[in-house]
Amino acid sequence: MVGGSVPVFDEIILSTALMNQVISFDTMAGILVCQAGCILEQLNQYVEERDFIMPLDLGAKGSCHIGGNVATNAGGLRFLRYGSLHGTVLGLEVVLADGLVLDCLTSLRKDNTGYDLKQLFIGSEGTLGVITAVSILCPRKPKAVNLAFLGCPGFAEVLKTFSTCKGMLGEILSAYEFMDNKCMQLVENHLRLSNPVKENPFYVLIETSGSNAGHDEEKLTNFLEQVMSSGLVTDGTVATDNTKIKMLWALRERITEALSRDGYVYKYDISLPMEKLYDIVLDIRSRLGQSAKSVVGYGHLGDGNLHLNVTANSYSSSLLKAIEPYVYEWTARHHGSISAEHGLGFKKKDFIGYSKTQEAILLMQQIKGTLDPKGILNPYKTLPSSSS
Ligand code: FAD
Ligand code: MLT
Ligand code: ZN
Q1: Contact assessment for residue 59 and residue 254, using Cβ atoms and an 8 Å cutoff
Q2: Which GO terms describe its molecular function (predicted)?
Q3: What residue owns the CA closest to ligand 1's atom 14?
């Protein structure tokens, strides 16, 4: 997403793929301890067999490693319900730049003995240490999961549907994702997926996860009646069986893949106040006009996180100049973050100043200097080059 794992100059690549063992699973507390190279989907399968789920889920689940997830503080589709890895990761084992093994691999829910060092490595993109093992808290597997895929006539209706859904589905709400019609056209055209509802300017995916199927269904039915009768939603479909659930999720999860088949992709991952979330897509679309192929907006609306993506037939520096730094200035003006969940990597590191103060950046550089004085850990990434 941001070139965080891409070697650019003289790096040595380190693979953790063979570190793929589960170390322990506490079936009472739901605490999984595993090596960093375990694949997320396989971990989810492992804990599901024991009646739990992983607290995070994302489109890359089939290939990404838990160590990579922690290193990038990946957000994803369950963030709305289970929160950030800063909350669910209980412990880490990390190899530091000088070879010292830092054992913070505890499985305690509460431990206020001094600084919580593991937090430094969560989201540090491999620049402070190599994560070798993770202890993570897993929620119980929900007994009932429902997924609603709904069409909305405008972005105002997407927001009102969210607010209604928070009020009416409350404790069983586990995901609220949105995509615009342009995204739908891309998944239809490039991946041959089909739109299960009437064509609309926007679509939302609402997932509920609870412990009582009858109770959840009743709540969802009341909610759907409310949003359909008030015109917030014009068409929709609901899934409870696994096959249809997977089919509906694919429409949202595979947007990234459809975009990459559309051409060269300029990717932006922004946090913004919810009511401003789509304004930037409209603004960029009119600013770029015919010079862009597609300008799309989708993402984790429930977390105030927009994925703004622009495609073109090929890379063009003039198109890039029309997007950046405009998109970062726009975001900073609205007090947003220029990287909500993808980190800074190689591509965004020099723009950190749009979201962090000089004092904060300096302290980050001091921490990096202390932990990695020779600059050998994921060099050239995350922090700005000293000249900028
Ligand atoms: P890599 O890509 O290999 O590495 C990512 C970064 O972490 C690099 O900087 C690398 O140096 C560092 N790193 C990797 N392993 C370690 C380690 N053991 N110790 C220290 N540093 C390490 N992200 C979201 O937040 N939400 C989403 O919804 C989401 N959806 C995605 C959907 C798709 C289809 C794709 C391709 C990506 C998506 N992402 C999403 C990005 C995703 O978070 C990352 O791709 C993933 O978490 C990184 O894990 P990885 O194993 O692939 O790491
Ligand atoms: C997603 O939510 O699909 C991802 O973060 C990937 C992307 O932004 O393309
Ligand atoms: Zn995302």
Answers
A1: yes
A2: (R)-2-hydroxyglutarate dehydrogenase activity; FAD binding; zinc ion binding
A3: 68
Q: How far is CA 15 from CA 37, 38, 76, 130, 160, in A?
A: 8, 12, 23, 11, 45
CATH 3.40.50.2300 fits 262-354, yes or no: no
| Class level of CATH domain 144-254 | alpha beta
Residue 73 Cβ < 6 Å to ligand 1: no
* Domain spans of the chain, in order of start: 22-137, 144-254, 262-354
Q: Give the CB-side neighbour count of residue 228, counting CA atoms within 13 A.
A: 12
pLDDT tens-digit profile of 175-191? Answer: 999 999 999 999 999 99
Helix 213-229 to helix 155-169 angle (10° resolution) is: 150
Query: What's the ipTM?
Result: 0.99
Number of helices (H), then strands (E), belonging to the chain: the values are 14, 12
* Matching fold, domains 22-137 and 144-254: no
How many angstroms does the Cα of residue 153 sit away from the middle of ligand 2? 23
Domain 22-137 bears CATH identifier 3.40.50.300: no
Instruction: State the Cα angle at 326 between 325 and 330, rounded to 5°.
Output: 115
Nearest Cα to Cα of residue 68 among 116, 101, 35, 96: 35
Quickly state the pLDDT bin for 380 (edges 50, 70, 90).
very high
Quick one: which atom of ligand 2 is closest to the CA of 299? 2
Average pLDDT, the chain: 97
pLDDT one-digit tens code per residue, 30-55: 999 999 999 999 999 999 999 999 99
- pLDDT value for 388: 45
